[in-house]
C-alpha cells in the first residue's frame, strides 16, 4: 500500500514539475528570484525532451509500482499519461522533439516578456536607474 502511494506521489511530483517548467516563468512576475529554481528546471526538461532521455521520476514511479505488486510501464511519463489524453497515437521521436521545442519556445517567450516588461521599462515615479542619470530631477 505504501509503495503504491509513493508511486502516485511520484506521478503528482512529475505533473507539478512539468507545470512548473512550462509556466513557472510567470511566477517571476511576482517573485523574480524564482529564476534561480526555474532556469535549471527548464534547462533540464528541455535537455531530457530534446535528447530523447527519460526523466528519472519515471523509473522511480515504475520501481514503486513493482514493489506494490503492480506492473510498471515502458516508455516515458508523457507517453504513458499525457499523450493518451492529448494524442491518440504513441509518442514518436519527432513528436518528442516538437514537445521539447514547444517547452523551449514557451519559456523563452515568457523570459523575453519578463525582461522587457519588468527590467527594461522605467517605472513611473522612479528617479533612479541608468535612464535617469544626469537628470536634475533625480538629484532631489
Overall structural domain count: 1
**Overall radius of gyration:** 21 Å
Instruction: Report the sheet with the most strands, covering strand number, pairing sense and barrel closure.
Output: none
Terminal Cα span:
68 Å
Features:
140 residues, mainly alpha
Question: What this model shows, in words?
Answer:
- Helix 1 (2-23) packs antiparallel against helix 3 and helix 2 (35-51) runs antiparallel to helix 5.
- It is built from five helices and no strands.
- By secondary structure, the protein is mostly helical.
Brief digest:
By secondary structure, the protein is an all-alpha fold. Helices cover 62% and strands 0% of the residues.
Summarize the SSE layout with pairings.
Blueprint: H1 2-23, H2 35-51, H3 57-67, H4 77-86, H5 93-119
